Amino acid sequence: MENIDIQNKQVAHMVAQIRGKQLACEQSQNAMKDNIIIYFEINKDYLRLNKELTKYFRNHFKEFVIIGNRITEFLSSEPISDVGYPNQKNKTHQQLILANEWINKYSAFEIIDQIRNGIFFNGLSNSTSNIMLPELESDCENEYWGNENPSVTPLLLYAINKIMGYPCNDDQFLVGCGKRVLFLKKDYLLPDHILTDTSNYPFADKKSMILFGSYQFGGQRRFSAQYIFGPEDCSSSLSKALFLNSNQVAHFCTPQILNAFENPDNQYKFKKVIELCGNTLLESVNSVEPGDIFLTTNHTGLFLTKPNFGVAQNSAYTIEFKRNLDSEFGKCEGGGFRIINLNDGTRYYILRPNIGPLKQIVSLKKLIEIIDSNYQHYKITDTNTIGDCRILIDNII
């Protein structure tokens, strides 16, 4: 992918969102890892009680799964106006099931030893130094990023910190990989029969939930409460990449994009390019340009490249935020790239935003280097930092 050139602002902004959250996620996971290492350096005697500690871990995670399922089922039928989209559509239960399966594979000593060596869920390192962007739906046993690993690992690390009773600063440890989300209605409380024994369940209290992952349904829609490395969904991330105003961001969603496709005088000034479905002609595919918007049923993103660039005929690289943790195969969570087949029978609506080019064309590799450098410059370590990831590319837009 190093030879991909980035020439428009919307793709650069999407890359900044994805890479910025990825760097923050890595940093937070490493901070939680270091906390665990320090704890067991101070309390070495615990690891001599390997059998007892193993049972202690497993019992806690078993209880977490039970409580997590109970909360998820209860919230699924609560009014959205009370609990909010991110909390109702949370995937904590699926993440806990995966974490519980992993915990039960190893002894406590083996778990702590892996963490000490920077080896996390599915036996992989979270290093970002050797990758460009996450490949969504990548094999979770061979690739750390682009699948369930980056959302299950922080849940595991956070839980172990909490189980051991070690101080765990949410504002530091959740940057880029999780967020405490208040229930939407200010006076809404989880009932006692749903959240029993709150001291044993670290992912919710009566007023809020901690959600893990850089994708959360609903995303961040209000600029006044928009955190630089907070979670997004497909349309909320796209709205910011398209430099929409605050009112447009608040209401931007896939039905609005379809409406824009059908209405030449749409408020976003998007231009209809083409509708693709089934046996797509090559000349039709060739009308698509990098930075164009694609829309399918309940999903959207951007074309990273022109179709047929470095991929099979009638295919293209896209860049997007996506989540699928429910299926057995092809799990993904967060932002990254995919290769889509425009001739697979899916209906694609293609639109072109009215946004100017970058000051100069940059390679994807160079863009990542710029983002990494700016990320180190800002050294943002607080989940409550208001802003937009465009600060990571201000010098080129």
Automatic annotation (TrEMBL):
Protein name, entry field: Uncharacterized protein
Species the sequence originates in: Dictyostelium purpureum
